[in-house]
Write a structure and sequence with these properties.
The structure holds 2 protein chains of 2 kinds. By secondary structure, chain A is an alpha+beta fold. Chain A is 42% helix and 22% strand. Chain A is built from 3 helices and 4 strands. Chain A has a 4-stranded mixed sheet. In chain A, a hairpin with a 2-residue loop joins strand 3 and strand 4. Chain A is globular and about 30 Å long. Chain A starts with a strand and ends with a helix. The model of chain B has no long low-confidence stretch (mean pLDDT 88). Helix content of chain B is 74%, strand content 0%. The radius of gyration of chain B is 21 Å and the shape is globular. Chain B is an all-alpha fold. Chain B is built from 16 helices and no strands. The chains are: A alpha+beta, B mainly alpha. Chains A and B meet through helix 2 of A and helix 3, helix 5 and helix 10 of B.
């Protein structure tokens, strides 16, 4: 599984990254979380509001910070 | 006097047994009444705007504005900018998305201007501390500026001043999930908690400073330097406002207190617009997609518009 956090590094992006890390840990996943800060890449995903969470190349959430519970459900599904 | 003022007056003068007319008591009275009022308004406003936000997503706005015409397109863009989420870090992906969808440059700018300028936090603060007349003046002139500046930028033919990589980006389509009402309400509730906790501390600090000014600075103190007759007050206020972005929630209560001490209404409006509409971090981020010339034109047009609004209302209302 590939998990990417899209965002330029503002407070919201950091919170999303943290939540994703906690969710992985609680699920026992060792997946590395990749930070994508390059605007060209972010835009090429079609994301117009950061932060965004991308799982296996698919944009799951954008424009808000989901809580740990929601990310866990996403990763399980 | 409303219920809140009665309550805070009762608390200060009856419970704390402070005497009326004393500076500290007056300051505390202002502080308690204003804090409760603005917190309530802020929560209600953010909640309502967040619900609208679940309907007006950037994806939909992009589709709606693609290939739109000058004038009407600018007006729709300016109006849609009001409820759309905006954090300066989203400005670049948003800009790229609009360009890709064929939204005209001028229309994109109308959106980029109204988005941060007219937002729910500033609106709640203005309504709570200044009343609906000033809030309406602010929204009205903000929309006029967003439309006019967008049309002007569109007419200047600056398409080549957008960084070249922007035109080459081809993005994937995102499927938008359909939300039901319980999801919309949940989103709005979470947003309200998040934004109120984020801006709350600045707001309390701002109101405390404002209350201090109310209580201790003599009335008419600023009448000479920031009153309607000093023509330089407006441009100076706009320049000071540019780096103050992150503290919009904290600055509006201070501006209100300053107005009480003689700052003219136009000067106050121009100052608040400059704080919310023009910010250093946003400019640094926009530089990634705009060449220096276009960025400079954008900043200049906005600064001149804010100054014009300030001078106009100083002349009309003073």
């Amino acid at each position: 599984m590939k998990i990417e956090v899209l965002g330029s590094g503002c407070a919201n992006c950091k919170r999303l990254e943290e939540n994703a890390r906690t969710a992985c840990k609680e699920l026992g996943l060792t997946t590395k979380i990749i930070k994508v800060q390059d605007f060209k890449k972010i835009a090429s995903y079609g994301v117009m509001a950061t932060p965004a969470l991308v799982v296996d190349g698919e944009v799951k959430i954008y424009g808000r910070v989901p809580d740990v519970k929601e990310i866990k459900e996403l990763l399980k599904g | 006097m409303g219920i809140l003022e009665d309550f805070s007056g009762w608390l200060v003068f009856n419970i704390l047994k402070m005497s009326q007319g004393e500076a500290l008591a007056e300051a505390l009275n202002f502080f308690i009444a204003d804090t409760i009022k603005v917190f309530l308004l802020l929560a209600v406003m953010i909640f309502l705007v967040s619900i609208i936000r679940t309907f007006v997503t950037p994806q939909k706005v992009k589709k709606l504005l693609g290939g739109s015409k000058e004038g009407f397109g600018n007006l729709v863009a300016a109006l849609l900018g009001v409820p759309t989420p905006f954090c300066s870090c989203s400005a670049v992906p948003l800009f790229i998305g609009f360009m890709e969808a064929g939204v005209p440059l001028g229309v994109t700018f109308s959106f980029l201007i109204s988005c941060p300028l007219i937002n729910e936090v500033a609106l709640a603060m203005l309504l709570g501390l200044f009343g609906w007349k000033v809030a309406a003046l602010y929204i009205g002139s903000g929309l006029v500026i967003a439309v006019a500046a967008g049309i002007l930028i569109g007419r200047l033919g600056l398409e080549d001043e957008v960084e070249d990589f922007v035109k080459k980006i081809r993005s994937k389509k995102i499927e938008e999930k359909k939300l039901d009402w319980s999801q919309r309400l949940k989103f709005a509730r979470l947003q309200t908690i998040e934004i109120v906790t984020k801006v709350g501390p600045y707001m309390v600090l701002g109101i405390a400073l404002g209350a201090f000014i109310h209580g201790f600075v003599p009335i008419g103190f600023l009448a000479d330097i920031a009153g309607p007759n000093n023509i330089f007050a407006v441009p100076v206020a706009v320049i000071i406002g540019i780096p103050l972005y992150s503290n919009a929630a904290g600055t509006i209560p201070i501006v209100q207190a300053l107005m009480d001490k003689g700052m003219a209404i136009g000067t106050a409006l121009a100052f608040m617009m400059s704080i919310t509409g023009l910010s250093l971090p946003e400019m640094i981020i926009l530089r990634k997609v705009l060449k220096p010339k276009l960025l400079a034109i954008f900043v200049l047009i906005l600064a001149v518009s804010f100054i014009a609004v300030g001078l106009l209302f100083n002349a009309l209302l003073a």
